[in-house]
Backbone:
């Protein structure tokens, strides 16, 4: 098989562009996977912290304990932007906004995955004794 002289060196031009496109899509896929993993962590830890506060009666001390537990279990990669508790006579609510970690560069701004916003609501558990309504 013989090569034509006008096709010499074509691979040297196309190969770097192909590798660059492959690595860009790979980085994008990894960033999306990290975002989904971070969303899963925020959701699980947020529900558990809200449940802990509700089971303990939702007094200020139990909310402080639940918040301390949440911050210790959310992981080092996630930055908590906003953490707001609210309680009523029956409901404990937590509004949580976190910023997921970035892979190599801040690609989250390009694909719209800047923050994770969740609201968790849990009914307060009140102690009932035998014979009480």
Residues:
């Amino acid at each position: 098989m013989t090569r034509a002289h006008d096709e010499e060196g074509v691979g040297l031009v196309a190969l770097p562009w192909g590798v660059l496109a492959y690595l860009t899509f790979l980085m994008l896929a990894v960033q999306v996977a990290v975002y989904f993993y971070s969303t899963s962590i925020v959701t699980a830890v947020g529900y558990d912290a809200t449940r802990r506060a509700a089971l303990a009666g939702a007094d200020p001390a139990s909310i402080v304990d639940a918040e301390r537990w949440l911050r210790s279990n959310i992981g080092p990669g996630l930055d908590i932007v906003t953490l707001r508790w609210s309680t009523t006579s029956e409901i404990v609510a937590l509004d949580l906004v976190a910023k997921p970690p970035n892979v190599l560069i801040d690609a989250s701004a390009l694909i719209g995955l800047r923050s994770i916003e969740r609201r968790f609501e849990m009914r307060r558990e009140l102690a009932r004794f035998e014979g009480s309504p």
Notes: Helices lie at 10-55, 60-73, 108-111.
